Amino acid sequence: MSHQITLNSWFGSDPDDAARKLAKVFRMSQEQSESVVDQLRDGRFWKFSKNISDNQAGPAAAYLQSLGFHVDLQPVDMTDDGEGMGFPVSEDTDDDSLENSESYLGLPFSFRGMGKELFGLFFVNSLKTILTLGIYRFWAKTRVRQYIWSNTFFAGDAFSYHGTGKELFHGFLKFFGMMIPVVAGLMALQIYGGESGRAIAGLLPLLLWPLIPVLMVGAWRYRLSRTAWRGIRFSFRGERMQAMKIFLKGGFLTVITLGLYWPYFRMQTEKFWRENSWFGDLKGEFTGEAREIFGKYVLAVFLSIITLGVYWIWFTAMMTRYNWAHTRFGKANFRFTATGGELFSLNLVNILLLIVTVGLAYPWVVVRNQKFFTEHLTLDGNFDIDSVIQDMKESGAVGEEALDAFDIPVDVG
User: Fold this and answer.
1) 3-class SS at 409?
2) At what angle are helices 194-202 and 165-192 packed, to 10 degrees?
3) Residue spans of alpha helices (H) in 209-309
């Protein structure tokens, strides 16, 4: 038996050292190995052209993993391609890595929901929402999330959602109470404030803009704190003021640089959301750098103008691969494999379904999107669930409902 070895991404701290050792392993030039490392950091995989013998496959995977590479081993028919490759099992390879080399293969995500089941849920929710003059929508949202979470699996076990409609309803009431003075003041300015008052009232949306990241933190904190896998809760520990500073600075610099600062702004926000997300006592890490995507961003803007925005789908797929490839929990890293063509096909079919059915196919679109995302996402590395300690952070639902009022998406990735 022999194996085909594929490197899916790299998540180390010293690319020069990794390239040097990679060149030694695969007997390539330093220039070639540096190109491979750069390719992996962009979220693209690299496959070795020769097969590796069975007795070398385990040590090879362990050694490369110790260098920060995500390794995928696929068994193939016996050949002589891998013989004499001279894989260097040296002082850089420890016994634990050799023993646990199989744990570095990807752990899959999957979604088992069905469009017809979600359609039935949407139908019942819509009727109850109409009959209760909109009040039931908080419970409706919770039921949909419970369905989606319970049908999303990782390593064979489903996620669970512990939020309640009552929490969202109370969050809405609190937000509504906070907004009454604002709305009253706005109306007073428009009626009694004259020209200056109306001018100030017109600027109110701009004055409220800095609050958006604050509300996003509250929403994401609530959603993660109500999400669990194998009984262990997630949590978000980012600070509201930190989010406000990042968004104000990034938004301002992006505007005055005519969009050129956007890659730096994007990497700062991704780092904030991902590194403040926890699973039990396991903290997320993110190593993306703006300089690595700047050229691709400039090219994407140019090509999107020429293609009337179509190329941006390919750039979105690339960014999603890049962001997940540079995200890790503990010793495990994510890998997202969807291409621009696959994402374009998904969106095109979704749009056609919605047009032909006048929106009735929306539940099927939700299922298609969820299946697409999970089928292309895996977690590579040594993910030891037994070592994760429960460490839940409580959070209220005010931010969640505030975001609904402003209609701002909160999803990360």
Assistant:
1) coil
2) 150
3) 211-225, 240-256, 262-275, 290-306
Residue type, 322: Y
Q: Per-residue pLDDT tens for 358-378?
A: 999 999 999 999 999 999 998
Task: Give the whole-angstrom CA distance, residue 212 versus residue 251.
Answer: 12
The residue among 404 and 129 whose pLDDT is bigger is 129
Q: Are strands 277-279 and 232-236 parallel, antiparallel or unpaired?
A: antiparallel
Question: How many whole angstroms separate alpha carbon 301 and alpha carbon 321?
Answer: 18
Span 153-176, pLDDT tens digits: 998 889 999 999 998 988 888 888
Question: Global pTM?
Answer: 0.72
Left, alpha or beta for 390 (phi > 0: left; psi -120 to 50: alpha)? beta
> In this predicted model, which residue has the larger pLDDT, 383 or 357?
357
The tens digit of pLDDT for each residue in 271-286 reads 999 999 999 888 999 9
Q: How far apart are CA 332 and CA 284, in angstroms?
A: 10
**Cα angle: 195, vertex 197, 202; to 5 degrees:** 95
Give the domains, in start order, of the chain with CATH numbers: 2-79+90-104 (3.30.1390.10), 108-406 (no CATH)
392 C-beta neighbours (distance < 10 Å), count: 16
What crossing angle do the helices spanning 262-275 and 240-256 adopt, rounded to 10°?
A: 170
